[in-house]
Queue: 3 jobs
Job 1
Amino acid sequence: MLEALSFQFVQNAFFAGILVSIVCGIVGSLVVVNRMVFIAGGIAHGAYGGLGLALFLGISPLLGALGFSMALSMIIAFLTYANKERADAIIGAIWAFGMAVGIIFADMSRGYNTDLTSFLFGAILSVSIGDLWLMGTVCILIMLFAAIFYKEFLAISFDMEFAKLRGLNTKIFYTVLLIMTALCIVSCIRAVGLILVVALLSIPPYIAEKFCVKLSQMMFLSALLSVIFTLTGLIFSYMFDLTSGASIILVASLAFFIVKVCVKNRG
């Protein structure tokens, strides 16, 4: 494996894994605490519509996924903020809409020869310098938002009604959180893909939650666990010639089940 680090694409993959882990640790903690994993899944799968649209228009797939997922996140925020009890039906409809749009635009694309499978399941070894710049930019933005508005995110995460009574514009921060989730998902496309990104957003924060009493601690530990899972999965995928995204999620899932069993036995 040390010999492989001399290759540029392997170095890119490791840097991508670290950046993605930091982003997922921060955003994933907020997603898990707010019980928004299904919403994150809806945005992730709906982003496929942006990939198909980008293919049809002949633009960057990541640019298409970014615009489409951010639009979906704002629509979801508008529809679910005051109607959370029916959020499952709304997310299901948007989920199906995004996937259908993506498939139709891909079918309509002339000379369609691009394999979109890598965007569904990830291909971290194909990360380019341009992808790293995108991931780095998203990582910095999310870290800044989480640091500057930490108290506001903490307030809406644990008692939104009380935060609203104290004068906090909870709708704005709820929307911002969903936009951050969309940015996180797009930055993870190359690493684990749209289908598996929900696991990286939810598994490390779930494990971290068992050992932390503060949201900030949970974010840090979640990011650290994500780095461990991502790099370990990347090493396994290289050693045994396996799909990188699936290997990363498999490592995370095994850790999840181990922690689940240990916590249950301790209880």
Note: The CA atoms of residues 56 and 108 lie 7 Å apart.
Job 2
Amino acid sequence: MKGKDFIITGLQSWDIPIGSNAIDIAKQIAVDNRVLYVNSPLDMMTMYRNKPTAETRRRLQVLKKHREPLRQVSKNLWVLDFPFYIWSINGLPDGFLFDVFNKTNNRKIFKYTKKVADELGFQNPVHFIDNDIYRSFYSKEILKPALSVYYRRDNVQPYAYWKKHAVRLEPKLIRKSDLVVCNSPQLAAYAANFNQQSNDVGQGVDLSAYDPAIPFSIPADLKKIPSPRIGYIGDINSMRLDANLIYELAKSKPSYSFVLIGPEDKVFTSHQLHSLKNVYFTGSIAKNKVPEYMSALDVCLNPQLVNEITIGNYPRKVDEYLALGKPVIATRTKTMELFSDHVYLCSSLKEYDAAVEKALKENTEENRNGRIRFARSHSWENNVHAIYNQIEKYLK
């Protein structure tokens, strides 16, 4: 697909310091098409109650007229920030009152977006909605795009911010979108209940930093930790990770080192994991250090809790682990079955215990190369082509 115009409503700010599906998709689409990436406008509560962050700082500067709303970041790619704020409405009761204020916010957002898109000469744009249930709910009626595509990359309904209104509104947004694309079979199966034009397009991952040919050095804080190092890298979050499973696994293998790399939530900081001598917490590390730390692990883990948040989740970190050729052990879910030829999938402590031994024993050059090839097939180029295929199929 070439020469088209895309407007992408980003749930995550372009300036967010961590990885973002919508941003990576925008960059890939912009190789052959024009893209306007629309940052969410700040609401009043964020403006006045929260301290500026890397994610909000530029939007605040635009609000104060210190920067221009529109910036061009590459030949075919523009990012739009809004010179105004919107109402903070999430605390309103679900129903009529929320809908009135949400429609007001939507009008403000998309009238301005349409004005900027027209000034850029955009014609018949495709609107790609990145899981943005509230701020893009009325976008189709206001923006009137050639095609409205809802991208469901996460089940956000169980989260505190979303649960009050998203349970009612997300099915409605799915139903009125022309096309729905999802990054896992479970997310697509849910969407298909409301829109038959719902498809799993898989996941893309930027693996440019995860090159097994790079001679990574072992970080100083891991050098003193004895091998074998069995580790996890990412947010150490009790809504997603099974703390008790990790504890029992580490306790059953006192001669192995278990390394947890990343920021902990309150449940983990107070968990009895901290009482085990063979469990090590490194704290947060810089994003550009992740491949270096990952390379120092002998076996990589993704010990998820199985719940409504994780059941359809596509874990990008597993592709990153595999891209470095690492043996990987993960909790079995339907989505993880996609990795079954290259990942040890487990449903119990006993299976995890056995998988650690197998992962260390079977870490052959042939298996290592197979993992790398498999991970490399999940490129953003391939993922965006899958999205293009669904768009073209719908238009035909």
Note: The chain is about 35% helix and 15% strand.
Job 3
Amino acid sequence: MNILIVTQYFWPENFRINDLATGLHERGHNISVLTGIPNYPEGRFFEGYGFFGNRTENYNGISIVRAPLTPRGNGTGFKLAVNYLSFALSASICGPFLCKGDFDIIFVYEPSPVTVGIPAIVLKKIKSSPVIFWMQDLWPESLTAAGAVKSKIVLKLFEFLVRMIYMGCDSILAQSRAFIPNILRLAGDSKQVLYYPNSAEEFYQPVNVCAEAPERVAMPEGFRVTFAGNIGAAQDFETIITAAELIKEQKNIKWVIIGEGRMLPWVKDQVNKRGLNNTVYLMGRYPAEMMPRFFALSDALLVSLKNEPIFSLTIPAKIQSYLACAKPIIAALDGEGAEVVEESGAGLACPAENPDALAKTVLKMYGMPEKDRQLMGMNGRIYFEKNFERNMLLDRLEGWMIELRENGQRSG
């Protein structure tokens, strides 16, 4: 099949769509990607990229065309809104000229914003191709959770936009089962909505780390509780830092934070103010391929989200990565993500935005026999292979795409 992927984010930005595109290409499909100029998470264009350079590229046999956009800056307020809208507008105008030929399927990847669906709907009208829309983030619910929009009028306008995008799609995929009722509320019961969770790249698996590995040198000595990913408002670092402060007398417990994000300056400031420099270790950002080795050197892996209704519906993508690496998980969140951790037997969960509960959960994990933590990790890997394994999910997606293409050909 000829498949066009529409996504605001793509390689060299680190998003799961990179691996999905590669997996479909490995199966013999011709993959083209309409995306933006890479600027996430730094908020500025990556080196070698700009408005006038690297507009077409090839990534592992995948053809990439880039529509111009305004970089996201610090990722808040007006700059972020302009970033979202600039891609939606430019991709809608440039996409029909940049994406030549016919496509059997247009596949949309939406981790936010939902406006990425607009150029896909435009292309559908021109190319007469069915659209599959993969929801990673619910809109307009995510706008209220982030505190970005409080106006009821603006939220109603976004609700109308989301409804129009849903109605223009032929199939909608939800990364969490809990998304489906919200999607159907706007899309209508007649719309095909399917559960399609995230997987994890094949390099996420248990590994042995040699003595001279740089990851071993970088990690502190002690019982390591590792968080890896975006250091943002949604991840509730207020709770993490407060929990670390509550048990800082347990000097063998080390909180390892790998990643970057707009909350990083605040986290650094709080670590200094609260005297946590020997407890909380800010490691910076590393390539995703190095994560399994950091995880192997960790005693527990931490995932956290704020106490917001929208976040209780989602499964943070890092949970799949953690499960795949067979390490015990501490989940400071509510709802669907916590249920996965508990159902799998892969770790311990505690309520979101509860520093005392998180501190007690870390202490409980710390006090467990090593063999019990190893069993949690093994449980997680088994659960991953049954529910989230990459090739199983690619089989499912490929089957839906073929069915949608054949139905379109028959109806045509």
Note: The CA atoms of residues 110 and 183 lie 13 Å apart.
